[in-house]
Amino acid sequence: MERTFIAVKPDGVQRGLIGEIIKRFETRGFRLVASKFMKASEDFMKTHYLDLKDMPFYAGLCKYMSSGPVFAMVWEGQNIVKLVRMMLGETNPADSKPGSIRGDLCINIGRNIIHGSDTLENAKREVGLWFKAEEFVEYTPCTQPFLYE
């Protein structure tokens, strides 16, 4: 099983989309293993988005992500990084297909409601940055035999 990091951004929180987003991942069959509701500092967000530090939007993104609460989560499942990226849609909602989270729920690239790890390596780094080992809940859902062979 893989793990991936997901964060509902301040725009998604303010719009009341946390439940809808969780529902989509649960319906797909993924398992939530950690979550927290928090307001991250700008310095923390600079660390999180360090791989984008040379991009022109980096400072604005870090400032925006620290402007309000975020809902951070770790989800687990087979091929989850790849599958979640497909579920999210394109970074620019205008390029996202209907049925994807961004395709259905947002309009503007600067307010695209959700962050998801883009690679397994970044997922491991982001999970470790946002969560301590003792914050994970280990359990076996009763539906697991109906999801995986």
From TrEMBL:
Reaction(s) this enzyme catalyzes, per UniProt: a 2'-deoxyribonucleoside 5'-diphosphate + ATP = a 2'-deoxyribonucleoside 5'-triphosphate + ADP; a ribonucleoside 5'-diphosphate + ATP = a ribonucleoside 5'-triphosphate + ADP
Membership in a protein family: Belongs to the NDK family.
Cited Gene3D superfamilies: Nucleoside diphosphate kinase-like domain
Gene Ontology terms for molecular function: ATP binding; metal ion binding; nucleoside diphosphate kinase activity
Active site positions, chain numbering: H115 (pros-phosphohistidine intermediate)
GO biological process: CTP biosynthetic process; GTP biosynthetic process; UTP biosynthetic process
E.C. no: 2.7.4.6
CDD domains: NDPk_I
Cofactor: Mg(2+)
Keywords from the named record: ATP-binding, Cell cycle, Cell projection, Cytoplasm, Kinase, Magnesium, Metal-binding, Nucleotide-binding, Nucleus, Phosphoprotein, Transferase
Entry protein name: Nucleoside diphosphate kinase B
Phylogenetic placement of the source organism: Eukaryota, Metazoa, Chordata, Craniata, Vertebrata
Segments traversing the membrane: none
Protein residues bound to ATP: K9, F57, R85, T91, R102, N112
Task performed by this protein: Major role in the synthesis of nucleoside triphosphates other than ATP.
InterPro entries found in the cross-reference section: NDK-like_dom, NDK-like_dom_sf, Nucleoside_diP_kinase
SMART domains: NDK (SM00562)
Principal place of residence: other
